[in-house]
Each structure stands twice: as C-alpha cells, then as structure tokens.
Amino acid sequence: MALQDLTxxxxxxxxxxxxxxxxxxxxxxxxxxxxxxxxxKKTADARGWLVTEVxxxxxxxxxxxxxxxxxVQMMGFKVGEVTRVTAxxxxxxxxxxxxxxxxxxxxxxxxxxxxxxxHFPGFINSDARVKVGGFPSDLLGGTHLEVTEGxxxxxxxxGTAPNNEPGVLWDQFAITPPGKDRTNKFKKYxxxxxxSQGFPKGYYVQVDQSETLVEGATRLxxxxxxxxxxxxxxxxxxxxxxxxTLSMLREAMPGLTNQVELLLLTARQTLPxxxxxxxxxxxxxxxxxxxxxxxxxxxTNSLEQTLVTTRQLGSELNRSIPMLxxxxxxxxxxxxxxLTRDTNITANSxxxxxxxxxxxxxxxxxxxxxxxxxxxx
Length: 377
Prior knowledge:
By secondary structure, this protein is an alpha/beta fold. It has helices spanning 8-47, 90-95, 97-101, 172-175, 213-362; strands at 52-60, 71-74, 77-87, 106-114, 129-134, 143-148, 158-160, 166-169, 189-191, 203-204, 206-207. Helix content is 54%, strand content 16%.
C-alpha cells in the first residue's frame, strides 16, 4: 500500500515513529563512538601511547642479565623500561677512547616516561648516574636499571630544542666535567631522532662505577668458593685424626668393659652388707622414735607446769613492784629531809663557834692569851 493511500492521521503517526527511530539510532551511534573513544584512551594510558617517553642511553662492561623490557627504577618508582641491549661494534669501540678507557662493551638504551602527573625526566640532570641492580635471576626479581637523580647544580637533560620540539642535551656535556668555559650559552638540545646506526639518540647518563649488587654477589660467591676450597684441604687430615681416635677407643674398649664389670661385681658383693647395716640403722631409728614418743608427754607436762609457775611469779612481781616503788620513794624523801636538817644544824654550829671565837678574843680576861707574840731581836 502506497503512502498516499494512508490517512493524514496515519501519515502523521508514521513520521513521528520515523523521527524517534532516527533519534534512537543517532544516540546509539554517539554512545558507541564515546565508548570506543574511552576504550582507546584507557588502552593508550595503559600502554603509554599518549605519554612522552624520553630516550637515554649508557654503556656497561657486561649486560649483567639485562634484557629488553627490564624495568628502570628511580626513587623507588618504575619510571621506564630498557629498549635495547646490544654489544658495541668493534669499529665503534676502537674509534673513541672513552669506550676503551672505561672498558665499555655493551650499549644499553632505555626510556623514561614524562606525563602531566609524573615528570620523571626533570629529576635526571647532567650529574645523574645509572647502575645495575637486582639479581640476574627471574625468581629473585630479575635485573633492573636504577637511576640516581641529579642535583640542582646539574643541567636538565630534557628540554626544548631550537626547533621548539622536545629534545635532549648533547652527550658531550655529560662526559666532559663542567669547567669555566661551560656556561649556559653552551647548552645545546638536539631533536629526539636516531643516529646512523639506528640507536635512539638520547641523552647519555654515566654509569655508576661503584660495586653493584650483582658484582657484590659475584664477589661473595667467589669468597664462598675460596672458603670451600680451604675446607676441602683441611678436611682430610681432620678425618684421619678422627679415625685414629676411634681406633684407639675400639682398642681401649675391652679393658674399660672389664673394669666396669669388676666394679659391678664388687658392688653386688658389698651391697648385702650395706643393706643389713641400713636395716639396723632404721631399727635403731624406730626405737629412738618410740622412746621420744613415750617421754614427750612427760616433758610436755613438766614444761606446762613450769610455765604456769613462771606466770604466777610474774603476776606477783607485777603486784609488788608498785608497792616497792612507793616505799623506795618515801624512804628517799625521808633521807632528803634528814640531810636538810643536818645541813641546817651544821650551819648553826659554825655560826655559834664563830661567835664564841670573837667573844674570847675581845674579852679583857682572855685578850692577853690571844695576843700575837713579838719576835725576838
């Protein structure tokens, strides 16, 4: 049936349905596009597609278990990964004394991410260092590169090139120590490109020449091997001495066994006499215990009678002590009164004698008798 055969009401309803269907399809397409865009963004964030990765490289004596994909750590964070590990070409190594002087044989390149949240290349200055860490075994975590951040005195390795694009500082400024001729005007940044050999042209970070964990483990294993060799040399003489000692013990064992048997025989012979003596001592002890048990009540009664008598004497003494104390105080008082009277009598006698003496010396009848005699001439 043609559209013209429909009534105006049906044509109006059909146009509205077509509009709603078109709107639904448009919204569905927009949602699909938005979901696909969100998926792409999350995948890009997870894989680092939208994150700027700054290339760096260094030289090592040996690979020490490094491989492509090994993590790069700094300040405890994973900041990137190793992108290439290869041996230096012989011609390249002989063309530059820096390789030969430091015994560099391996080229290692790595990248450090730089996003809005974590600006890790900003910590890597011209005085930064890199070293190999971990153990060359996947069971123990594997080997990784550990970057030590630079100080504020160094020059930032990652910046803007003359063409206003991201670049890196030339490697000569990391190899050559800073001098008086090294000022800010000599800072030169190059674009992030590859060199003629295909190596990513990044910033050179010097390797830390201090002992790494792998080298320390190797040195420790060498020391353990040396100690094991020393033990192997000393062990045979010790084993021979031990065998000689065991042989001497085997030879002396029969004599010791005979002496032990003789000692046991002597003990068996003397044991009955000791047992009889012990029985007699126990019998005497029982008799003494029985006698003590018999005499103990009498001693207890005597002791109780003595205690009763002692308590009675104590009570009588307690009653008589106040009376004795009173009598003694009264006697002392009487003695004191008598002594006071004697003192007064003695004083009165002294006064009387003095008066009699004055009377005799002054009376006319006795004056001549008490005159002083004149000395003879």
